[in-house]
Amino acid sequence: MENHLIMRAKKGDDEAFQQLIELHVKTVEKFAFQLGVPESSVEDITQEVFIKVYRFLDKHTRGKFTTWLYSITINVVRDLYRRETRQRRKLKAFQQAQESSIYIEQFYDESTKALHEQIQTLEEKYKVPIILHYFHDLPYQEIADILGVSEGAIKTRMMRAKKQLKEKLEKVGEVQ
């Protein structure tokens, strides 16, 4: 069904493109938030992702559509952070601290709030594979395709990320 929608959208069928958006909008929103985008910017990021999908849909010729969608989302999020000034980042961090608890409750219960906060402290190269594997159920090979690295690199990053998370959670008393 998804491939049929993609083919129709490539031919200019706006209704098919709208259905593609509806099929994937929650995944993009959730992933953007998990990458550290403040709740107040998630909608803007999601909109930007689908604008890029619309503009470059013809460039998607092989592979899973969702793999391509995750890659676009990562790039849009990176662009957001490149554009922000240091002062704006500090302000947004303050705002995020106030707003994120409301948004977190939509996806997580209280017991995983500490985990989410610790995942946010990881370097991006560790954070993204953890999120994609454990929260989006993607296999290592697909994560490797999204990030443009080898499956071995993903395995190493996952091992290091899990070790770092365990240490961080032990420090705050969440893991025995």
TrEMBL record:
Domain RNA polymerase sigma-70 region: 20-86
Annotated RNA polymerase sigma factor 70 region 4 type domain residues: 114-165
SUPFAM superfamilies: Sigma2 domain of RNA polymerase sigma factors (SSF88946), Sigma3 and sigma4 domains of RNA polymerase sigma factors (SSF88659)
BP GO annotations: DNA-templated transcription initiation; response to stress
Keyword terms: DNA-binding, Sigma factor, Transcription, Transcription regulation
Molecular functions (GO terms): DNA binding; sigma factor activity
InterPro entries on file: RNA_pol_sigma-70-like, RNA_pol_sigma-70_dom, RNA_pol_sigma70_ECF_CS, RNA_pol_sigma70_r2, RNA_pol_sigma70_r4_t2, RNA_pol_sigma_r2, RNA_pol_sigma_r3/r4-like, WH-like_DNA-bd_sf
Keyword match Signal: no
Gene3D superfamilies (alphabetical): 1.10.1740.10, Winged helix-like DNA-binding domain superfamily/Winged helix DNA-binding domain
Pfam families membership: Sigma70_r2, Sigma70_r4_2
Keyword Mitochondrion: no
PANTHER family in the cross-refs: RNA POLYMERASE ECF-TYPE SIGMA FACTO, RNA POLYMERASE SIGMA FACTOR SIGV
Similarity comment: Belongs to the sigma-70 factor family. ECF subfamily.
Designated name of the protein: RNA polymerase sigma factor
